[in-house]
Amino acid sequence: YFRTINPLVEELKPGYAQVSMKQRWSVQNHIKTVHAIAVCNLIEMALGLIAESTIPEHLRWLPMGMDVDYLKKASGKLTAKSTIDPNTFFVLKEYPGRVDVPVEVFNTEGVIVTKGYVKLWISLKPDKKKEK
User: Fold this and answer.
1) Closest Cα partner for 67 from 120, 119, 5?
2) I need a surface site. Which of 25, 67, 68, 111 has the fewest CB within 10 A?
3) What predicted TM-score, i.e. pTM, was given to this entire model?
4) Cis peptide before 96 (omega within 30 of 0)
């Protein structure tokens, strides 16, 4: 599904993800800006990248929802950035539990056009030895 926005992963490391997309006809809305759902797709792509590159091996994540604020019209090249502390972000008092991953979307002028928080359910991976 992410292919619909033709994303480009610009930078990825534990605790940081940066992914971009270019405005083109197939992601535009009726006022010729990037459609809100295309921007949400970019946010979810950044979320998946940062979660997979950062979450400890004994944990797993499942998206629960997303809160999104559209601050300005989104047009041109858009870049989603997410930053979390790779050492502490997924450390919870108890599992399962919820975390909210922040993602900001910038235009080419560096202005934030959209802010999102993706709600993740974090749980321990099942013990494969017990499943047998």
Assistant:
1) 119
2) 25
3) 0.93
4) yes
Type and span of the H or E element at 43: helix 36-54
Give the Cα separation of 63 and 55 in Å (integer): 13
Kindly state the DSSP code that residue 129 receives in the 8-state scheme: H
Provide the Cα torsion 106, 38, 52, 93; round to 10°: 80
How far is residue 58 CA from its own chain's centroid?
A: 21
> Per-10-residue mean pLDDT for the chain, 132 residues long?
92 98 96 97 98 97 97 98 97 97 98 98 88 58
CB proximity list for 99: less than 8 A, separation 6 or greater: 89, 90, 92, 119, 120, 122
Task: Give the per-residue pLDDT at 131.
Answer: 59
Question: Could you give phi then psi for residue 4, rounded to 5 degrees?
Answer: -65, -25
Q: Which of 132, 71, 130 is nearest to 106 (CA)?
A: 71
Residue 29, helix vs strand vs coil: coil
